[in-house]
Amino acid sequence: MSPRGQNEACDGGLRNAAPLLAAYLGKRADLIRFFAARLNSTAAAEDLIQELYLKVGAIDPAMEVRNPSAFLHRLATNLMLDRLRQERRSTARDRAWEDGRKVMLGGQAVVDEPSPHDAVVARQRLERVAAAIEALPPAMRRSFELHKLEGLSQAETAKRLGLSQSAVEKQISGALARLSGSLE
Amino acid sequence: MTPRRPNIDEALREAAAQWVVALRAPDAGEAEWLAFEAWLEDGPDRRMAYDRATALWEDIDAHQAALRQRLQRASASPVVSLESRRARRSWTAPAAAVGALAAAAVLAVVVFIPAPPSAPPPSVAAPTVYVTAKGEHRSLTLEDGSRIDLNGASRISVRFLADRREVTLDDAEAAFSVAHDTARPFIISAGRRSVRVVGTEFDVMRHEGRIAVTVRRGIVEVAQGADAPVRLTAGRRLRAEDDSTPAVIEPVAEAEAQGWRTGRLIYRQQPFGDVVSDLGRYFDEPLRIEGDRTAALRFSGVLVVGQEDEIIRRIEALLAVSATRDGGAIVFRSNDASR
User: Fold this and answer.
1) Cβ A18 vs Cβ A61: under 8 Å
2) Is residue A105 part of a domain?
3) Is A81 on the interface with B (CB under 8 A)?
4) For A172, which residue in chain B has the nearest alpha carbon?
5) CB–CB of A127 and B1 under 8 A?
6) Which residue of chain A has the CA closest to B23?
7) Residue A148 covered by a domain
8) Which residue of A25, A152, B105, B337 is 20 to 30 Å from B143, comparing CA positions?
9) What is the pLDDT of residue B332?
């Protein structure tokens, strides 16, 4: 995830143009963080925030906005909902870790020659992540795997494990914290 | 990992992870945004912590299938992880010694670990499988720079973990040139035996229960169970008929040791008796020739090691002999009844 700080720097001269625009510029990176989480995609969030910029630029500078941050959020949410309505299909992510050059030989999936540096790094990372997941406390690991790897929602995970949703959320975030700690 | 990355303390990591999860809740809205914004404002470290946790979260999503597969495989073969754990523990001391010696040249440690009798094949734990067709000879370069030359009809599985490199020989003949990495030992599982190396060149063959380890370069220490280790030097081979019989160490000719490299036995006008004698090292069943004249036939051809039926077929195609199975042995007879 890169916050893409260059745009803010370029637009720095506009900061005084309007309070809302200034708020946008100040919160741009954070908005991307927030909407990337909602959209599950940083790229989609960046597009959204770009679009938001056009909207904000079109708003009369004289307009008074009491809470620019909340206002920006509302604008961006509307854009996001429009977007989600437009394209329901989920984008298949690249599978670099699995190595694209897979061939079948005798009914057996065979990965060809270990590929370029990127794939190597990715594969090593996969192993590190997997090892870190294996090292999680069992209950935490169970919740985390059901949600993140089996694709169950938090509610479904909670139901499956007979736990409250907040307990599951705690376990999942706890697992993520540990993983990010052990991968540091 | 890089030195530039400042450490994030545990409390911050936890808070960041909570935000990553909370913001993905279906009902996260304006209130969450404002709270999140306020939290972020508290310091640049928070943004970094959140970004890192998000990157990991997204990585896991992007590689969901691969991770699931990898974790399921690991849990489906508890014996493998058990072996690995035992391996790590018992190798702590040798590994330290290796670190010092390996800098000078090369040194490898071979440890045989008896597995529980109910052991499933360790191959189930490996995510990347390399297979060669009969007669195919393939050179692989692994991500750490190690090279594996695979003989025909071989099947190996490779997986790289944070703390070790694992190769499982299901049924394979392979020559290894292992990149030096004391932090990540290279562990080869062949049946119930494991070969652990740090960086050297050697060959491992596993076929129908038999195992052979031939050292081309460097020194290998061999330990079996609790016995004192035995040194295996270049030009020596360790051989065992199956998982439970004791291993034999024998000298091996340079050419023979290199035979793996090409994966082929090449003959030019050699007495068939010599050819069969050579093949005896690769066949489980005893080989016999009926008749002195049959043994004296001259054979020219290339035989791919490790594929017994194919070798027999080739011999029958290249020489006027037929092979039959007779009382557990393979018997070659001349097609010319008068001989």
Assistant:
1) yes
2) no
3) no
4) B21
5) no
6) A37
7) yes
8) B105
9) 93
Tens of pLDDT, residues A37-54: 888 777 778 888 888 888
- Looking at the fold, whether B101 and B153 belong to one and the same domain comes out as yes
> What type of residue sits at position B200?
T
pLDDT for position A163: 93
- Residue B240 sits in the same domain as residue B296: no
Q: In this complex, which of A38, A120, A173 lies closest to B21 when CB atoms are compared?
A: A173
Same domain for B90 and B211, yes or no, is yes
Q: For residue B32, which residues of chain A lie inside 8 Å, CB to CB?
A: 34
- What's the domain count of chain B? 3
B190 three-state secondary structure: strand
Pairwise CB contact (< 8 Å): B53 & A40: no
Q: Does A10 lie at the interface with B, CB-CB under 8 angstroms?
A: no
Which residues on chain B are in Cβ contact (under 8 Å) with A93? 61-62
Residue A103 in contact with partner chain B when CB distance is under 8 A: no
What contacts 24+ positions apart, CB below 8 Å, involve A163-170? A168/A143, A169/B21, A169/B22, A169/B25
Examine residue A150 and state whether it is found in any structural domain, yes or no: yes
Label residue B95 exposed, middle or buried (CB < 10 Å: 0-12, 13-18, 19+): middle
Is residue B330 domain-resident? yes
Q: Is residue A104 part of a domain?
A: no
What is the tally of structural domains in chain A? 2
Give yes or no: residues B196 and B273 share one domain: no
Distance from CA of A60 to the nearest CA of B (A): 23
Nearest CA in chain A to B3: A184
Do A73 and B30 form a contact (C-beta atoms < 8 A)? yes
A114 vs B contacts (CB less than 8 Å): 140-143
Q: Which domain holds residue B184?
A: 77-258
Per residue in B171-220, pLDDT (tens digit) is 777 887 777 777 777 777 776 666 666 556 777 767 656 677 777 776 66
Are residues B155 and B125 part of one domain? yes
Does B294 lie in the same domain as B158?
no
> Residue B298: which CATH number?
3.55.50.30
- pLDDT tens by residue, A66-92: 788 888 888 888 888 877 766 544 333
Q: Which residue of A has its CA nearest to B164?
A: A127
Q: Is residue B128 part of a domain?
A: yes
With a CB cutoff of 8 Å and minimum separation 6, the contacts of B2 are none
Alpha-carbon distance B125 to A180, whole Å? 25
Closest partner CB to A108 (pick from B47, B131, B159): B131
Question: What span, in angstroms and rounded, lies between the C-alpha atoms of B78 and B89?
Answer: 17
With H, G, I as helix, E, B as strand and everything else as coil, classify residue B4.
Answer: coil
Any domain includes B308: yes
Same domain (yes/no): B199, B330: no
Is the separation of the CB atoms in B180 and B102 below 8 Å?
Answer: yes
